[in-house]
Structure to design on (99 residues):
């Protein structure tokens, strides 16, 4: 069983966001993680977010504990600060679930 999060983002800089994804991949793999789905969204018909969503993805981890450890990892925090915060202006957690 894995732990998965469905996320909607407003990506404002595709190039920097791609650098973020590449930089976090080795750490994500340490926690049994990866991306199950990844979509660039051109039209949103209904949303409860207070920001535009132009990217939706499902990210998974080996467990809830693995997810928490990943997001707490010191190297991940540096990567997030360097890339994510410069390239994403809105984040919505659509769902979290065990799969």
């Amino acid at each position: 069983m894995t732990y998965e999060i469905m996320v909607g983002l407003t990506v404002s800089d595709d190039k920097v966001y791609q650098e973020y994804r590449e930089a976090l991949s080795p750490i994500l793999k340490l926690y049994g993680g990866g991306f199950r789905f990844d979509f660039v969204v051109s039209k949103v018909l209904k949303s409860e977010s207070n920001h535009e969503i132009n990217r939706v993805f499902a990210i998974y981890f080996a467990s809830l504990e693995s997810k928490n450890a990943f997001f707490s990892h010191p190297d991940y925090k540096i990567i997030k600060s360097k890339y994510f915060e410069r390239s994403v202006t809105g984040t919505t957690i659509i769902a979290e679930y065990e799969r």
